């Protein structure tokens, strides 16, 4: 029984999930938020505007202090990747003995390699450099998730849902479980196309495979995906990086049986689509490079897979981010 749900990070995806869960009335839904988003939630509740004209507004309990919200049955983490390492150690008051944690985030999550030889001791330094996330959120709590939905926040606390309601949920180790079924059922009753996967790691890697190039290339160039794919040189570069990622996937048990061109054809149907990273760059928000490109590059390097295209993409995107104040500068070397 999932009676209490807390959404950590009430932005576009967090707000979409929170609003629909609250509107369904199947659980008590609260939000951990801050700043203008917190003010909006306290004043006006969850607010959603859908592309088909649907409008939802539901009161909610919101706070910037986890202790005020207390232990939950399910914690949905929907913050941007760069924020999680500092946030995770503060989430203890939300975590009771049986609390589940569902990271609804872009890219490779911190737990992704925790059971893979060669990563057990150190984890992924690109997404959890000091191990703070893994220490705060035990692997046994986690359910893997993949979000197939597009949403934005035209103003704090307001979600504009463009398209998609897909949510894939599964145990990190692939086993069937009642708890995964319970989360899927809860999401389905809230109107999501929720499914349980017995190989959620592969589902995560497949989505990453599609986002790996479009996101950073769009941020660097300012181009929508239709223009990226229309340039044959850029398209070929993206294909080369995707081929490298597919080679990595085979070594970590996440094979991709699809050619980059087939994926490009699917992406092209989105038309003049602005990726989430392009939206962040244009809004002056930190770029989620580490979980999308940095983690892929790190896994490849540690497995000995050559990644010249992914490395070039990471270097250029990282430099773009640093020049524009959207990605941290490297720490100074010790004397």
Describe this structure in words.
With 335 residues, the chain is α/β, with parallel strands linked by helices. It folds into 2 domains: 4-198, 3-Layer(aba) Sandwich (Rossmann fold); 202-323, Orthogonal Bundle (N-(1-d-carboxylethyl)-l-norvaline Dehydrogenase, domain 2). The chain is 44% helix and 20% strand. The chain has 13 helices and 10 strands. The protein has helices at 12-24, 35-44, 66-69, 81-87, 132-136, 178-189, 200-221, 225-230, 232-251, 260-268, 276-283, 289-303, 308-323, and strands at 4-8, 28-32, 46-50, 55-58, 61-63, 72-77, 95-103, 144-155, 158-170, 193-196. The protein has a 5-stranded parallel β-sheet. Strands 3, 4, 8, 9 and 10 form a 5-stranded mixed β-sheet that branches. Helix 7 crosses helix 12 (289-303) and helix 7 packs across helix 13. The longest helix has 22 residues, at 200-221. It is globular, with a radius of gyration of 19 Å. The relative contact order is 0.12.
> What structural category characterises the helix and strand content?
alpha/beta
Order of helices and strands: EHEHEEEHEHEHEEHEHHHHHHH
Approximate strand percentage: 15-25%
Mean pLDDT: 95
CATH architecture of the largest domain: 3-Layer(aba) Sandwich
CATH class of the largest domain: Alpha Beta
Rg over alpha carbons: 19 Å
In a nutshell, what does this entry contain?
This protein has 335 residues and is an alpha/beta fold. The chain has helices at residues 12-24, 35-44, 66-69, 81-87, 132-136, 178-189, 200-221, 225-230, 232-251, 260-268, 276-283, 289-303, 308-323; strands at residues 4-8, 28-32, 46-50, 55-58, 61-63, 72-77, 95-103, 144-155, 158-170, 193-196.
């Amino acid at each position: 029984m999932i009676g209490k749900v807390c959404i950590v990070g009430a932005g576009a995806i967090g707000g979409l999930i929170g609003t629909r869960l609250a509107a369904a009335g199947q659980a008590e839904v609260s939000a951990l938020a801050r700043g203008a988003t917190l003010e909006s939630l306290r004043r006006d509740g969850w607010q959603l505007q859908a592309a088909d004209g649907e409008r939802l507004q539901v009161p909610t309990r919101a706070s910037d202090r986890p202790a005020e919200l207390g232990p939950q049955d399910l914690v949905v983490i929907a913050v941007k990747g760069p924020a999680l390492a500092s946030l995770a150690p503060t989430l203890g008051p939300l975590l009771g003995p049986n609390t589940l944690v569902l990271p609804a985030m872009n890219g490779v999550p911190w737990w992704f390699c925790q059971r893979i030889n060669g990563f057990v001791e150190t984890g992924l330094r690109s997404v959890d450099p000091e191990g703070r996330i893994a220490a705060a959120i035990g692997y046994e709590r986690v359910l893997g998730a993949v979000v197939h939905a597009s949403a934005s926040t035209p103003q704090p606390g307001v979600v504009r849902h463009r398209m998609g309601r897909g949510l894939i949920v599964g145990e990190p180790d692939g086993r069937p479980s009642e708890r995964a079924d319970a989360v899927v059922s809860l999401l389905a009753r809230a109107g999501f196309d929720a499914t349980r996967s017995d190989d959620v790691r592969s589902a995560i890697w497949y989505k990453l495979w599609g986002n790996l190039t479009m996101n950073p290339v769009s941020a660097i160039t300012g181009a929508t995906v239709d223009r990226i794919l229309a340039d044959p040189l850029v398209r070929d570069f993206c294909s080369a990086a995707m081929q490298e990622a597919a080679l990595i996937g085979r070594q970590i048990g996440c094979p991709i049986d699809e050619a980059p061109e087939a994926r490009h054809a699917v992406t092209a149907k989105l038309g003049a689509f602005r990726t989430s990273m392009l939206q962040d760059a244009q809004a002056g928000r930190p770029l989620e490079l580490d979980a999308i490109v940095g983690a892929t590059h790190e896994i490849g390097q540690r497995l000995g897979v050559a990644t010249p295209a992914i490395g070039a993409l990471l270097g250029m995107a990282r430099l773009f981010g640093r020049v524009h104040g959207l990605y941290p500068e490297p720490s100074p070397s010790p004397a």
